[in-house]
């Protein structure tokens, strides 16, 4: 005995694609969280400190979902960019810092975020991929 079924697969495909896209959107956020938190975990110990304010000011959050998901890692201390990028001769302007009575060479950069990203290197895409797959 032979059985033949005629099935309209367009509805099935549509529902499957919607379900997969919904799970991917969630997975992208999970993957981005894994990447951002891994960078943050490596950056905090590399951050120079006297009072600990700069270390405490480092925060990570995700925004959007799916293909538009973005991770935002930032240090909210007002002086964070000067510590990270340097000042004076070592900073973006590459010039002495002049005061009324003298000048200073400035402060060398201490790029704690970039060092953390470099340390993780090729592992970042894997972290993202694992996060996406965990949601599927």
Description:
The structure is a single chain. This protein has 136 residues and is an alpha+beta fold. It has one domain (10-135). The protein is 51% helix and 13% strand.
Fold topology:
Elements: H1 9-46, H2 53-56, E1 58-63, E2 70-75, H3 80-85, E3 97-99, E4 102-104, H4 112-120, H5 123-135
Antiparallel strand pairs: 1-2, 3-4
Helix pairs in contact: 1-4, 1-5
Q: Main sheet: which strands, in order across?
A: 1-2
Q: How do the SSEs run, as a string of H and E?
A: HHEEHEEHH
Low-confidence stretches: none
Please give the number of β-strands.
Answer: 4
Distance between the termini: 39 Å
Shape: elongated
Q: Determine the mean pLDDT.
A: 87
How many helices? The count is: 5
Brief account:
The protein has 5 helices and 4 strands, in the order H-H-E-E-H-E-E-H-H.
């Amino acid at each position: 005995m032979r059985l033949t079924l005629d099935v309209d697969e367009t509805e099935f495909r549509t529902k499957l694609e919607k379900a997969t896209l919904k799970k991917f959107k969630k997975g992208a956020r999970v993957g981005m969280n894994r990447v951002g938190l891994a960078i943050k975990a490596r950056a905090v110990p590399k951050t120079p400190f006297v009072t600990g304010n700069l270390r405490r000011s480092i925060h990570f959050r995700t925004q959007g979902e799916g293909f538009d998901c973005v991770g935002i890692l930032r240090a909210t201390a007002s002086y964070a960019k000067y510590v990270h990028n340097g000042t004076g001769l070592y900073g973006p302007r590459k010039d002495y810092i002049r005061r009324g009575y003298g000048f200073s060479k400035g402060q060398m950069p201490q790029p704690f975020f970039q060092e953390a990203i470099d340390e993780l290197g090729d592992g970042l895409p894997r972290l993202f991929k694992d996060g996406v797959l965990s949601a599927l």
